[in-house]
TrEMBL record:
Belongs to the class-III pyridoxal-phosphate-dependent aminotransferase family. Gene3D superfamilies: Aspartate Aminotransferase, domain 1, Type I PLP-dependent aspartate aminotransferase-like (Major domain). Signal peptide: none annotated. The lineage of its organism: Bacteria, Bacillati, Actinomycetota, Actinomycetes, Micromonosporales. Its cofactor is pyridoxal 5'-phosphate. Keywords: Aminotransferase, Pyridoxal phosphate, Transferase. Homotetramer. This is alanine--glyoxylate transaminase. GO terms for molecular function: transaminase activity. Its EC number is 2.6.1.44. It comes from Polymorphospora lycopeni. The keyword Transferase applies.
């Protein structure tokens, strides 16, 4: 069977709104470490990791063996109506690492479900369906999660079960606050929050949900300290802070284990997903007991925290900590980030190079302006693939390349990927 055959079959049975990367889509059939191989036998260095999900890399013996041990018991699923040792052990680790006092953990299958759970307990706790969200954000594809997504291309419906008020994003290239220095930016954002509360809400808001670094939004992030400054205002009336750490968690930013830790704040609720399962369906929310216990009916997730996924999750956290991958993200991310800034910031099509650790982005613009350059983005994206490098796309205007390699990326692999990236940008800029 050829890839063309598989593509035709895909189009015949799957929805038209499911995107496929590349002009000639690829089927990934094997992987090891930070590399994958497609059905044609071509091997690529993977700088996107299944959308920042394959966080430890491919075919990691410790994770494979943990899953195989569980499979050998014959128990793949019991539901959470029974005690699950792997689930309890993983919850203990997540609770300890969260930094949240007196924490409780609820497991789900995806980041979307984790954010839905956070919204459920926050609105119950506050007896309000009013939510503060941030422009350019992305929180998932379900009904309520889509309602708090401030990104039009991902908002498939205008219907919304929540009353949402929007705060300015941290976009420092073309956002309304972009011309301000970091201190002024934080001050203006706090003023914006106070005005929104006074003019667009009845005061009894349930929560503010924010990504420390906006994922789908193109790795846009506000100055450090903003979430903490917002939290001081929220605390005046008891409004909760939800930190969406689906993409920023587990040490990916290098400088911190969680994105919120750059902001001198501790959230009331924290959602996590993606990397914790390293490809297995695993996500959840951790929060203060008095908030997370606010479900006054029978509720559970049938598959959330199942024995196989939590076996993988336990192995992922153990590997992550044993190998200090946060420090590796800082060290190797600096090679990649500093190298990009030195090599391409003077290119006419490059508007910005940003990010932290192994969460990096390049935004493309029309030369001499801040106008988005989607055509250049697509051209560089395809050129990277031809050079043997897989990257992601994103941004409000689809003009951002996103890179979230496995946290096991080596210095040599970082330099290899950097060379491919720089070559691709140079070729497109000179075309």
């Amino acid at each position: 069977m050829t890839t063309d055959d598989l593509l035709a079959r895909h189009r015949a049975v799957l929805p038209s709104w499911m995107p496929l990367y590349y002009q000639e889509p690829i089927e990934i059939v094997s992987g090891a470490g930070c590399r994958v191989t497609d059905a044609q036998g071509r091997t690529y260095l993977d700088f996107f990791g299944g959308v920042l999900t394959t966080m430890i890399g491919y075919d990691i013996p410790e994770i494979r063996e943990a899953v195989e041990r569980q499979l050998r018991t014959g128990v793949v699923h019991t539901s959470t109506l029974y005690l699950i040792r792997q689930q309890v052990e993983l919850a203990e680790k997540v609770a300890r690492l969260s930094g949240i006092p007196d924490p409780r953990v609820f497991f789900t299958n995806s980041g979307t479900e984790a954010n839905e759970a956070a919204l459920l307990v926050a609105t119950n706790h506050r007896r309000s369906h009013q939510i503060l969200a941030v422009r350019n954000s992305y929180h998932g594809r379900s009904y309520a999660a889509m309602g708090i997504t401030g990104h039009r291309s991902w908002s498939a419906s205008a219907l919304n079960p929540l009353q949402v008020s929007w705060l300015h994003s941290g976009d420092r290239l073309r956002g309304l606050l972009s011309r301000l220095d970091p201190e002024q930016h934080v001050e203006a954002a706090v003023d914006d929050l106070r005005e929104v509360l006074a003019t667009q809400t009845s005061g009894d808001v349930a929560a503010l949900i924010a990504e420390p670094i906006q994922g789908v939004g193109g790795f846009v992030h506000a100055p450090d300290g903003l979430l903490g400054a917002w939290k001081k205002v929220l605390d005046e009336t008891g409004i909760l802070l939800i930190s969406d750490e689906v993409q920023t968690g587990w040490g990916r930013t290098g400088e911190h284990f969680w994105g919120y830790q750059a902001h001198d704040v501790v959230p009331d609720l924290l959602t996590f997903a993606k990397g914790i399962g390293n490809g297995f369906a695993l996500a959840g929310v951790v929060g203060r007991a008095e908030v997370l216990n606010e479900v006054h009916a029978t509720s559970f997730s049938t598959y959330g925290g199942n024995p196989v996924s939590t076996a993988a999750g336990n192995a992922v956290i153990d590997y992550l900590l044993d190998h200090d991958l946060q420090a590796n993200a800082a060290r190797v991310g600096a090679i990649l980030g500093d190298g990009l800034r030195a090599a391409v910031t003077d290119r006419g099509i490059v508007g910005d190079v940003r990010g932290k650790g192994l969460m990096l982005a390049v935004e493309f613009v029309q030369p001499g302006s801040r106008e988005p350059n989607t055509a250049a983005t697509v051209a560089v994206f395809e050129e990277c693939r031809r050079g043997g490098l897989l990257v992601g796309k994103g941004g409000l205007y689809g003009n951002v390349l996103r890179m979230g390699p496995p946290l096991t990326l080596t210095e040599d692999e970082a330099r290899e990927g950097l060379a491919i990236l720089v070559d691709a940008i140079t070729k497109v800029d000179g075309a």
